[in-house]
Amino acid sequence: MGLQMLIFLRRSLLMWAVGSAALSTTTGEAKCAFTAIFNFGDSNSDTGGFWAAFPSTPNPNGMTYFKRPAGRASDGRLVIDFLGLSPFALPIQLNQMKEFKSRVLQLQPKAPIGCYPSFLTELPHSDSELDEHGCMTTYNNAVKFYNNDLLKGMLRQTREALRDATIVYVDTHSVKLELFSHPKEHGLAYGTKACCGYGGGAYNFNPKVYCGNTKEIDGQTVTATACADPHNYVSWDGVHTTEAANKLIALAVIDGSYFDPPFPLSQLCDLQPIG
Which residues form the signal peptide (predicted)? Predict the structure, then answer.
């Protein structure tokens, strides 16, 4: 039932199955020693699976932490990189998941796409459709409806079907919306402008040439390059978030204040993000 449920999740959702995850702790208590995290998601949480089968991410992806492309659509680490390490092969992990008698499933909702530089560039809109932070209200309201009504409704049904599992909704939508809306309050400078892109302006995004790629546009050969300070940006390439934003999201997850129903993760163990 658990794996069947995953099939119906929209590809932009992220699911972590946490067994009784190699989070860094400041204590040596056994209750802090999570043994596994099973991560299912799209490129916002893919640490190399997709790029192992298809052309790899080009420079400047990976520039901040890995100093080279590392199969991640970001300048550095993703949220999952701050929460756990992956020392085993997928078949072993799947077998372990089947054997879990007690488990915690954490699901993340769709992100506030109305704040994405890519959507703001490609989707026609008027100034009246933007909120005070420059995000498209219509699209963000649609995402909120999906998260609050459709997704949470599905989770209620799933809790009934998987009574031996603790299923927690992690509202990373609100975390990302806060970063896009108030970047300076969190040590960042730019919310709806991409670090790696082409075109400059308010969004620095051109759908004809993605981060790290070179294309001919209007008779000119152009390259979508990275800014010198990705640590000041929420958006890396118009679609994915920077390492700086990912770490802030990971800290919010560890804090536990965005869990529904409440799950006292920070009270159970003094966890710190890896790195």
Answer: 1-21
